[in-house]
Write a structure and sequence with these properties.
The complex is a heterodimer of chains A (360) and B (306). With 360 residues, chain A is mainly alpha-helical. Chain A has a domain of 235 residues. Chain A contains 15 helices and four strands. In chain A, helix 3 runs antiparallel to helix 4, helix 3 packs antiparallel against helix 8 and helix 9 crosses helix 11. Chain B is mainly alpha-helical. Chain B is 75% helix and 3% strand. In chain B, strands 1-2 form a two-stranded antiparallel ribbon. In chain B, strand 1 and strand 2 form a beta hairpin. Chain B starts with a helix and ends in a 10-residue tail after the last helix. The chains are: A mainly alpha (360), B mainly alpha (306). At the A-B interface, helix 7, helix 12 and helix 14 of A face helix 4, helix 9 and helix 11 of B.
């Protein structure tokens, strides 16, 4: 009986279940034929991202190593957003706020560690810290907390309201950072010395790239594990048909909220890495333009696909670097490409390279 | 002094509110009738301001420029609808957001390419400069009063258009049941283009009028666009009445907050700190207002749609 429903039902929930148990021969072989092309494209993408910077480093091109770190970090931020947009169907137009908050945690912490002034002295003393581990932990926790507050209000709404309210909350934090003078206001805050890690020299370009790369792979692994779990199945169903999920006895609201929080935490960690990469954090990291760009990256790569954000980030940063080198009006061409992708290539670069996802 | 300041700032708030309404009414109409979320609405605001500045500079007539601004924005709006927007009506909101985000990039960079990065100069005509003395010895710029007057006039005209004319009837019918008015023989695609161009024209008018007060530059539409989003979320998406009340609310709260919050904090803080805290909080005030309203009414104050 259960087997019967899973074959007749084309929903992704059933597909995922049968994919795990692989009782259904037809589906399994279909999944295998996908693995060849899709797996190859994905492995190539990840392999090149790892190998090219290593090669560049030993050839003495530090610029390209830092470029790869930039791609990696932006991909990681997009992995976070993809969890909300692609898997959860929550079109958040304010994810820059978590990216920026993560960045400001790194910046403010380094600022106080450099100045030897405490971050707060009442009711208890909180000193600054130049340890990345502390920065990362605080960034993840604060972003999760902020996302819990924003998500709890925003997820009461749906559709356009959700898009606009997440945008508005992000703008609120953006204007706050702009007009709060202590940490540089609209001028931003420099990080004079990159935060440190035990056992590794974080100021070395290649080491830092490898740290970022590990972060990206971890974020993707977390997403993948999450989406294969019962929680992921519930989240998928909340996206496809939340009434049906509710009928099955699961309230969609907490499922969405938790994945929104995890999504924000991943993006926030990427933000902390980004601030340390650039040695600078400014309200631009919080701006709605960046939220838009993150969405663009998710869509360019292929929405709701594990490797989509990575493909999108590679494409986006390459376009920015190459076109930006030719003309200062490169965003005009970015706009045209994006328009073309949205209107004519709905499944993104990965959809084109690696074939469609099973649940599309 | 204090009453004078209050009157002056209240008027400023109303003036901001009426200009926001010109933006928000187009946005909310387009969403109400076509179900489309349009980020590129701020670009029409910019187009209107640039066209007005250019034509005013070459002819010397502000009124001519204003007409050109409205016409240019409406024309660009109609063109964008024909080329891009009509492919998006049946797409999910995510696609609409991205496509119109792409339009923003194209418009902003295209404008920068043509006109350069430095702002254009546009000032109100000489017969609108100067001050009037209001009761309570408040001296207030004539031009701002004219903006308030135009905002009110256009609100009334829009109300009459929607409640009294055939076009308005179709718009209302489109809001309540899109399929049905198509089935009744109304040319939907023409109606959609018309509504979109109307909204774009209103945004262009707002851009031209505000452009004479501030500066005409690339990206000028974006802060206004986001304020207009806050307005229609507060008012209820799709509702013109909600847009009007939301616009006035946002305009007044934002303006008064910026003036009075720093003063308020000076009562128990050193002045330099009070200015920082006050202005930071003032910048967040309307978003807090929105969050509070949505916490109680998730669909806004006057929702036209479920």
């Amino acid at each position: 009986m259960t087997n019967n429903t899973s074959t007749s039902n084309s929903s992704s929930l059933a597909n995922r279940a049968s994919q795990r148990t692989t009782t259904d021969a037809a589906l399994a072989s279909k999944a295998n034929s996908h693995f060849d092309r899709k797996g190859l494209v994905q492995l190539t993408l990840l392999g090149l991202l790892l190998l090219l910077p290593v090669a560049a480093y030993f050839l003495g091109h530090i610029y390209y190593v830092n470029l790869a770190s930039r791609i990696t970090i932006i991909a990681m931020a997009a992995v976070g957003l993809n969890l909300a947009i692609g898997y959860g169907g929550m079109v958040s137009f304010g994810h820059a706020v978590y990216f920026g908050l993560g960045g400001y945690v790194a910046g403010i912490s380094a600022f106080h560690a450099f100045d030897l002034t405490p971050f707060m002295s009442w009711p208890f003393t909180v000193p600054g810290s130049d340890s990345m581990l502390v920065v990362w932990l605080v960034a993840v926790l604060l972003c999760a907390l902020l996302a819990l507050a924003i998500g709890a209000i925003s997820l009461r709404t749906t559709g356009v309201y959700f898009i606009m309210i997440t945008l508005a909350f992000a703008q609120m934090i953006y204007y706050f950072a702009n007009s709060w003078p202590t940490y540089g206001g609209q001028d931003g805050l420099p990080i004079y010395i990159r935060n440190t890690l035990p056992l590794a020299d974080s100021s070395n370009a290649l080491t830092y790239f490898l740290i970022c790369f590990t972060g990206l792979v971890l974020a993707m692994a977390i997403t993948s594990r999450l989406m294969k779990s019962r929680f992921g199945a519930a989240l998928t169903m909340a996206r496809l048909n939340d009434v049906r999920l509710a009928t099955a006895g699961i309230n969609p609201y907490p499922i969405r909220l938790v994945s929104f929080v995890i999504s924000a935490a991943i993006t926030g960690l990427a933000g902390a890495l980004y601030a340390d990469l650039n040695g600078f954090v400014s309200p631009a990291m919080l701006s709605w333009h960046f939220s838009g760009e993150l969405m663009v990256i998710v869509i360019l790569g292929g929405v709701g696909r594990l490797y989509g954000p990575l493909a999108g980030a590679v494409l986006f940063v390459m376009m920015e670097t190459l076109l930006g080198g030719i003309t200062e009006y490169w965003q005009l061409f970015l706009g045209l490409v994006l328009l073309g992708v949205v209107l004519f290539a709905k499944h993104g670069v990965l959809g084109w390279l690696a074939g469609r996802e099973r649940n599309e | 002094m204090s009453v004078t300041l209050l009157i002056e700032q209240l008027l400023n708030g109303v003036q901001l509110g009426t200009m926001l309404f010109l933006m928000a009414s187009g946005l909310t109409l387009v969403f109400g009738v076509m179900g489309l979320i349009n980020l590129a609405h701020g670009s029409f605001y910019m187009v209107g301001a640039y066209a007005t500045a250019t034509v005013t500079a070459s002819t010397g007539s502000f009124l001519l420029g204003l007409g050109a601004g409205i016409a240019a924005a409406a024309l660009v709006g109609a063109l964008v609808e024909l080329l891009v927007i009509r492919r998006l009506y049946h797409r999910p909101h995510l696609d609409q957001v991205l496509a119109t985000f792409a339009l923003i990039l194209i418009f902003s960079e295209g404008t920068r390419w043509i006109f350069g990065s430095s702002p254009l100069w546009l000032s109100p005509p000489s017969w609108l400069t100067g001050f009037v003395t209001l009761p309570g010895d408040t001296r207030y710029p004539i031009y701002r009063l004219v903006l308030i007057g135009m905002g009110i006039a256009i609100s009334i005209a829009l109300y009459l258009l929607i409640s009294r004319t055939r076009l308005g009837m179709r718009i209302r019918a489109g809001e309540s049941d899109r399929e049905m008015i198509g089935a009744l023989g109304v040319n939907i695609s023409k109606l959609y283009t018309l509504v979109f161009a109307l909204g774009a024209g209103l945004a262009g008018l707002a851009g031209a009028l505000v452009g004479a007060l501030q500066s005409v530059q690339v990206g000028m539409g974006e802060p206004v666009l986001i304020l207009a989003f806050v307005v229609i979320v507060i008012g209820g998406i799709g509702s013109i009445k909600g847009a009007l009340l939301g616009a006035l609310l946002v305009g007044i709260v934002d303006t008064l907050g910026r003036v009075y919050l720093p003063i308020f904090f000076q009562a128990f803080m050193p002045p330099s700190e009070a200015t920082g805290v006050g202005s930071a909080l003032a910048a967040m005030l309307i978003y807090i207002l929105m969050a509070v309203i949505l916490a109680f009414k998730p669909k806004g104050l006057f929702s036209a749609h479920d």
